[in-house]
């Protein structure tokens, strides 16, 4: 199993082994489903045990880079919120984002200080374009995956991401966070104030 799980075998950019035959060998050993892989998939993507979903394997087997993945429709019937353990694993992949628990609902949060109120709105437009572009993997349904956008005190931006349809986090949320991290924001954000030494008193 470990040989099959070698990362380069799962690289979709340079497949060494046709993915379908790889998945088949992972999923059935002498006709029995491979519960270990199903267990990993269920934990990792929040799918119910009986769903032998390609989505799950696609999510599990494709690149570690969340920013090149596609969201699945939030109204997928067996999508459910991921566990806190899974969320704690994925949060490592989205630098700068915090995992928060708001009354039992896990969410992703990140804040920025923008140069001006209108730069904040420009930021929102960039994020809106990302959110609207999210389709499911075969582009049949434009599901879209949308963040909650806050602009307060004229230049303080906070973005919250969670999957409303399931009342918690799914991999969609981490994909959107990773894509937001990929935006070029240097024209919009206030320069970080360098850490000054202790203020001198005269
Ligand atoms: C049909 C479509 O998938 C739903 O309306 C989408 C739209 N965008 C969404 N965005 C978020 N964050 N959560 C959702 O549940 C959601 N649902």
TrEMBL record:
<dbReference type="InterPro" id="IPR036428">
    <property type="entry name" value="PCD_sf"/>
</dbReference>
<comment type="similarity">
    <text>Belongs to the pterin-4-alpha-carbinolamine dehydratase family.</text>
</comment>
<keyword id="KW-0456">Lyase</keyword>
<dbReference type="GO" id="GO:0008124">
    <property type="term" value="F:4-alpha-hydroxytetrahydrobiopterin dehydratase activity"/>
</dbReference>
<dbReference type="GO" id="GO:0005739">
    <property type="term" value="C:mitochondrion"/>
</dbReference>
<dbReference type="InterPro" id="IPR001533">
    <property type="entry name" value="Pterin_deHydtase"/>
</dbReference>
<dbReference type="GO" id="GO:0006729">
    <property type="term" value="P:tetrahydrobiopterin biosynthetic process"/>
</dbReference>
<protein>
    <recommendedName>
        <fullName>4a-hydroxytetrahydrobiopterin dehydratase</fullName>
        <ecNumber>4.2.1.96</ecNumber>
    </recommendedName>
</protein>
<dbReference type="Pfam" id="PF01329">
    <property type="entry name" value="Pterin_4a"/>
</dbReference>
């Amino acid at each position: 199993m470990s040989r099959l799980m070698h990362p380069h075998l799962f690289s979709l950019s340079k497949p060494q082994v046709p993915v379908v035959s790889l998945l088949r060998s992972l999923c059935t050993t002498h006709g029995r489903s491979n519960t270990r892989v199903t267990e990993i998939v269920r934990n990792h993507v929040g799918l119910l045990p009986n769903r032998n979903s390609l989505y799950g394997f696609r999510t599990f087997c494709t690149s570690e880079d969340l920013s090149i993945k596609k969201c699945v429709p939030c109204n997928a019937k067996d999508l459910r919120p991921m566990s806190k353990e899974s969320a704690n694993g994925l949060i490592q992949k989205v630098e700068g984002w915090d995992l928060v628990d708001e009354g039992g609902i896990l969410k992703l949060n990140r804040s920025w200080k923008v140069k001006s109120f209108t730069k904040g709105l420009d930021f929102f437009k960039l994020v809106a374009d990302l959110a609207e572009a999210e389709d499911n993997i075969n582009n049949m349904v434009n599901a879209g995956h949308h963040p909650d956008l806050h602009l307060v005190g004229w230049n303080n931006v906070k973005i919250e991401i969670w999957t409303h349809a399931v009342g918690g986090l799914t991999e969609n949320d981490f994909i959107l966070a990773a894509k937001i991290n990929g935006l070029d924001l240097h024209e919009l954000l206030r320069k970080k104030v360098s850490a000054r030494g202790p203020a001198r008193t005269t």
